[in-house]
Amino acid sequence: MSSSLLIMGCSESSIPTKPPTDNIYHDYYGLTYHSPAVTMNTPGSTFWVQEIVSDFQSTRRGDEPDSFTAVPLDSSCRVPRPSSGAEVTFIEIGGGTVKLPLHFVDIPHEGEQIPGVNQGGGRGIKMKQASQVRRVDVIIGENQAPVYLMLSAYSETLWVLHVSENVDLEGVAVVGYEAQGLTNVPTNTKVGFVVYGKPQQECWKGEVGRPVDQTWGAFERLKDKRSKASFEKEINDAKKQYANFQTWVRWHIGHPDTIITAYTTSHVLVGAKPKTPIPYQSLKSQKVLYTPTVKPMWG
Exposed, middle or buried by CB within 10 Å (0-12, 13-18, 19+), for 237? Predict the structure, then answer.
């Protein structure tokens, strides 16, 4: 699977003049398709991220975050649960499309030190197990009720939050197969991480459910080019994996009010479009929370 960018539309703060509906071009097992500039819960409707985040900028090497903080993982996969009155949204993606100058370096064994790699440093060091992280912006529009998010990705992702004024983001659960990061988190927001590996390998099997509608819809359109047995097995395995994931996440978090899915995306809107664009905050001034299964390396 490969993914390539056709029109980014996020390298400058001005709103692009081209339509945002066919923003990103992907190649998925030989199938090409487009996805919207901003993924949202209203099919067929989208807009540029610059319309909802003012002065939006792409990330540059000089935007190294202020700090990196590892969040301890609960061995029972417990995460903060939403309150009874919260608006619960699940965001489920395969991964992001925008590469960052950030790598997550695998730690082979718990407590093992990697010479020369410090949190947020170590540019130029060659590592066999380093994966480049992709950025996904989550924009939270106006909402009267408290908001709770479950952010799920298969690949290494840095989730960047943009919260509208007066919105109570009460909790965020980040669930991934690979290492995950989260930044621009409001002060009183509770955060929990679940990823595949120690110490959560017993309570979390890593069956992150990549969205069926786009991922396996691609196979539907390719079935004439594949053997029937192979095609049916992949479809059945995907549906089983997704069903297992949904059962697991509902057991640990609860039932969602909204599910937003995309195989790949750069920006996701939760709730209504903000009446006033949210001011952009550079990563340079932020603290990045991340899973302690890796070491972050910027540069």
Answer: exposed
CB-CB contact of 51 with 278 (8 Å): no
| DSSP letters for 159-184 | EEEEE-TT--EEEEEEEESS-EEEES
Task: Work out the pLDDT band at 40, boundaries 50, 70, 90.
Answer: confident
271 vs 297: CA distance, rounded Å: 33
- Residue partners of 35: CB distance under 8 A and separation at least 6: 23, 24, 26, 214, 262, 263, 264, 265
Strands 180-183 and 287-290: antiparallel
Do 253 and 263 contact (CB within 8 A), yes or no? no
Interatomic CA distance for residues 220 and 237, integer angstroms: 14
Q: Within 10 A of 144 (CB to CB), how many other CB atoms are there? A: 11
Per the structure block, which two tokens stand in for 224? Answer: 């004439």
Do the Cβ atoms of 265 and 97 come closer than 8 Å? yes
Question: What are the tokens at 172?
Answer: 């965020």
Give the whole-angstrom CA distance, residue 268 versus residue 138: 5
Residue 229, pLDDT above cutoff 90: no
Q: Please state, in angstroms and rounded to a whole number, the distance separating the CA atoms of residues 210 and 238.
A: 8
What 3-state DSSP class applies to 290?
Answer: strand
Q: Which residue has the tokens 């939050």?
A: 161
Average pLDDT over residues 28-44: 66
User: What residue type is 266 in one-letter code?
Assistant: S
The CA distances from residue 78 to 54, 154, 215, 249, in Å, are 36, 19, 29, 11
